[in-house]
Design brief:
Layout: H1 2-23, E1 26-33, E2 36-43, H2 49-64, H3 72-77, E3 84-85, H4 88-103, H5 113-116, H6 131-138, E4 147-149, E5 152-154, H7 167-181, E6 187-191, E7 194-198, E8 208-213, E9 222-228, E10 232-237, E11 242-245, E12 248-251, E13 266-273, H8 276-289, H9 291-299, E14 305-310, E15 315-317, E16 325-328
Antiparallel strand pairs: 1-2, 2-6, 3-5, 4-5, 6-7, 7-10, 8-9, 9-16, 10-13, 11-12, 13-14, 14-15
Helix pairs in contact: 2-7, 4-8, 7-8, 8-9
């Protein structure tokens, strides 16, 4: 009888929790962090939850921004080669970055910061950086010289790091977990192209649908739509930040070896994975590697898929990615 009562109570609790989520209000919040628009849509009865989630974004920006004095990244970059004690979150971001750097043989490298600093992709009248200065800056990039040990980070005095290619994804993961910890079972987070979904849409509406931007059209014009349940969908493309000069597209996806924007056959790469931090770094690495090498890298990873869009509008997908596509445009 005790087992029967316990089972009945458990069933009632599960039903109540499910019903409560279905009845939860749809709430949205928008903020501007990490130089991008952050939007969160979640089903919750907690009217303050999304405001608290945005406060978490502020906390992570203070920790991981290279331009905020006193941040962990600022302290590493200004330590003149001395070890720096950093927060656990910073260690986790750097460990993801170093993992993808090793996996891609340096196609992703957070020590590219000196080269990044020579570019201004938002300038009204953009100009190219000095070629010699850029070559010297790119020569400093070497992820193997970044040492993480016993909660400390050490970087040679002439080097700097920039977490722009991984931090947004990591933070999206942390905010998604914050929502889950507060009872949310249905939500969609968009951190400037880094999308994370929690569960499915409520009331039996099925999986979330996420659009993949058409690189040749204005923002919001989608080439494909994919389903995403408890999944990160992260796109890196030449349309995101950049400028055109003398018939050449100069974009923010830089080759760590040269410091120049990658000029290959790709317009964009979209990565599908369980964790957004990993997907974020992989999207950049895969783009830098190009279709053939990038495809091989992703195919070798469990639980990760990719869709490649070329400049001549071909769409290529890893073996498991095609099953995610639900519509064109």
């Amino acid at each position: 009888m005790k087992k029967y009562v316990a089972a009945l109570l458990a069933l009632m609790f599960a039903f109540t929790a499910c019903a409560a989520q279905e009845d939860a209000a749809k709430r949205s919040a928008v903020g501007f962090y990490f130089d991008t628009v952050v939007s969160i849509t979640a089903y919750t009865d907690d009217a303050q939850l999304l405001d608290r989630a945005l406060e978490q974004c502020q906390k992570y920006e203070q920790l991981l921004s290279k331009t905020i004095e006193g941040s962990d990244v600022w302290n590493i970059n200004h330590a003149q080669g001395q070890p720096v004690a950093v927060a656990q979150e910073t260690l986790e971001v750097l460990e993801i970055a170093q993992y993808v750097s090793g996996l891609s043989q340096g196609a992703f490298d957070v020590t590219i910061a000196p080269a990044v600093s020579l570019w201004d992709f938002a300038a009204e009248d953009p100009v190219l950086p000095d070629g010699e200065a850029l070559a010297q800056a790119a020569a400093l990039a070497d992820y193997t010289r970044l040492v993480i040990e016993d909660g400390m980070v050490t970087l040679p005095a002439d080097m700097q790091i920039d977490l722009g290619g991984v931090a947004k994804g990591y933070i999206a993961d942390q905010i998604a977990q914050f929502l889950r910890d507060n009872g949310v079972t249905s939500a969609l987070l968009n951190f400037g192209g880094n999308v994370v979904t929690i569960g499915e849409k409520p009331d039996g509406q099925g999986p979330w649908r996420v659009g993949i931007q058409n690189p040749d059209q204005s923002r919001g014009a989608y080439l494909l739509a994919v389903t995403a349940t408890d999944m990160a969908v992260v796109t890196s493309g030449i349309y995101e930040r950049g400028f055109d000069l003398d018939g050449v597209r100069y974009h923010h996806l830089l080759d760590p070896e040269t410091g120049w924007p990658v000029q290959n056959e790709l317009s964009s790469v979209t990565i599908f994975a369980e964790r957004s931090g990993l997907a974020d770094a992989l999207s950049t690495a895969t783009f830098v590697l190009g279709t053939e090498a990038g495809m091989a890298m992703i195919e070798a990873l469990d639980g990760v898929e990719a869709i490649f869009v070329t400049r001549d509008e071909q769409i290529l997908a890893t073996s498991g990615a095609a099953a995610l596509v639900v519509s064109n445009g």
